[in-house]
Structure formats: C-alpha cells, structure tokens
Amino acid sequence: MPRPSASTTYEKSRTSTRHPLALTIILSTALLALSPAQAANLTDNRRSGYAFMGPPLRAMQDDDMTNPASLWQRDGETLWAEPIGEAGRSCADCHGDAASSMRGVAARYPAFDRTMNRPIDLEQRINHCRTAYQKAGPLAFESHDLLALSTHVARQSRGLPIAIENSKALHPFLAMGRSLFHERQGQLNLSCAQCHDDNAGRSLGGATIPQAHPTGYPLYRLEWQGVGSLQRRLRNCMSGMRAAPYAFGAEAFVDLELYLMWRANGMPMESPAVRP
Ligand code: HEC
Ligand code: HEC
C-alpha cells in the first residue's frame, strides 16, 4: 500500500513530481478512454472509509431517507432560520439559502482566519458567527445544536472535492499536523501513520483500518448511535493508542484536521457519512 502523502511537499501537487513527463503523457492519453471514476482509481491509491464498508452501510449513507444523520441535518436547517442572541439575527438573515451560500464551504475547512492568525475548523467558524454576529454564546463542542448546524453546512458540499487552500500562511500548521500524524505517542508507542499508512486495509479487533481520510464529517457512527465531529473520531483513535486525547478545540486538533483534509485534497466530500 503506497503511503498516501508522507513525502509530498506542500508546494507541489501530489502527482506532479512522481512521473517523468513522457510517462505522464502516455498515462493521460490512456486515461482519456476511461470514465473519471475509473481514471481516479488508476492514478490515486487513496480510499475513503466508504470503500472499506459493506453494501448495507454504503446504502444507508447514500440515501437521505435511511441516513440517520439526516435528522441532525434537518434540525440544523431549522436552527439556520432561527433569529437568536442579542442581535436577534438568524444565519439565514446574513447567508440566505445555505444550498447556495454554503456550497463548497466545508470542503475548504479548516481555513486560515486572519483575526486568529491561524486555521480554524468549521465548528469554530460557526461559533465565531454566533458570538461576533448573533451576539449569542458559543455552542459547546459535540452539542446537538453545533453538530446539527455543522451537518447542515457540510451537507451542502456533498460530492464536491476537498479543496484546502495551498496558502503559505497554512504551511506551518500543515507541518505541525503532519508531524503529529507521524509522531509515536501513548502507552502503545504508536503513530497514526503506523495504522493508517502502513496497515490500512488490515483488520484490527473486528474493524478494518481505513486510510483516515476525513471525507465524511460530521458523520453518523453506529458505535456512537449518533452524529459526531472529526475531533470526536480522533479522540477515539487517541484513546485506542492509550494516549491522552487533546481537549476539544485544541490547536493541535485543528492542525491535525488540516493535515488530514489536505492529504485528502480532491477526494469527494461525503458529509454526512455513515461509519461502523
Ligand atoms: C491502532 C491503530 C490506529 C491508530 C494508531 C490510529 N487509528 Fe485512526 N482508526 C483506526 C481504526 C481501526 C479506525 C476505524 C474504526 C471503525 O470504523 O470501527 C480508525 C478511524 C480513523 C478515522 C476515520 C476515517 C473515516 O473513514 O471516517 C480517522 C480520520 C482516523 N482514524 C485518524 C487517526 C489519527 C489522526 C490518528 C493518530 C492521532 C489515528 N487515527 C490513530 C485505527 C487506528
Ligand atoms: C450578521 C451576519 C451574520 C450572521 C447572523 C451569521 N454569519 Fe456567518 N458569516 C458572516 C460574515 C460577514 C462572514 C465572512 C466574514 C468573516 O470571516 O467574518 C461569515 C462567514 C461564515 C462561514 C464561513 C464562510 C466561508 O466561505 O468561509 C460560515 C460557515 C458561516 N458564516 C456560518 C454561519 C452560521 C451557521 C450562522 C448561524 C449560526 C451564521 N454564519 C450567522 C456573517 C454572518
């Protein structure tokens, strides 16, 4: 299993340095005969967690009627239109119809925020609008309302490619996320990469180890019987490594989220996905 991006530099696109020019031309000519999905399979060894699931779970994710996360999304749609806080304004008052204003937004997060001078994730972005523009208190991480709103916003990016900006301002944070991904930690002295790069596709205690692409968050996890954020998922993995999980909202988490989204650049968003 090739290591998805361990050696790719941030400045260059993931494939540009790999093949000599002639080979690239031969490959591109051959690829014209294939459908985009077939072509992606040949050139890209990255796989979403979706690819490691059986047909029943895939079907559950694909159909809004059976995807349990739709319930959260519908609550998010209601909250979107509710005027709240001292400002008495709703998300819709400023952003209008989420289907157009939020299209592709979740695919770009975490994104660099000039006021914070660092990347913030989608949940922090939503809370920023609550406090700065609605003059309401921030929602707690993993609270029903924050998950509902982030699910509603992320749903508007379903099918669109992940598009973390290649901006110099993000590079130090990407580098930090990358080193957290490769650093051994916890009582088991394991790194994320040892499971997700070196052993993806193998089974571990009844679960198949995916490549850790964050294509589907927030998502419905059967084990949780509910919707959770990417940070909740990462906390689960850190507990599994017998490492002390970072606090929700910690900068290290956002750096890790940024790195995971960056190495999944171009992969389609599935939010809200379903996972075992
Ligand atoms: C001991 C192996 C192991 C280690 C170490 C590990 N994970 Fe995981 N991870 C798993 C398994 C197994 C799953 C899937 C669990 C399931 O679906 O039941 C998973 C799931 C994930 C997912 C969800 C992918 C999806 O399709 O939604 C992400 C993201 C992830 N891990 C990131 C990380 C990060 C970041 C680290 C390091 C902080 C890490 N993991 C450490 C085994 C590991
Ligand atoms: C008073 C107007 C106002 C309200 C109310 C408001 N926002 Fe915003 N929102 C903005 C502005 C202005 C920006 C972009 C400028 C900035 O970064 O502050 C923004 C940016 C965003 C972004 C990032 C968009 C991007 O392209 O990166 C998201 C997501 C978002 N808002 C979600 C929400 C949600 C969800 C709510 C309701 C809980 C909400 N906003 C309420 C004004 C508002």
UniProtKB/TrEMBL annotation:
Chain sites annotated for binding substrate: R233
UniProt: heme c 1 binding residues: C91, C94, H95, C129
GO biological process terms, semicolon-separated: sulfur oxidation
Cofactor descriptive note: Binds 2 heme groups per subunit.
Cofactor(s) listed: heme
GO molecular function list: electron transfer activity; heme binding; metal ion binding; oxidoreductase activity, acting on a sulfur group of donors, cytochrome as acceptor; transferase activity
Subunit structure, interactors included: Heterodimer of SoxA and SoxX.
Protein name listed in UniProt: SoxAX cytochrome complex subunit A
Annotated organism of origin: Telmatospirillum siberiense
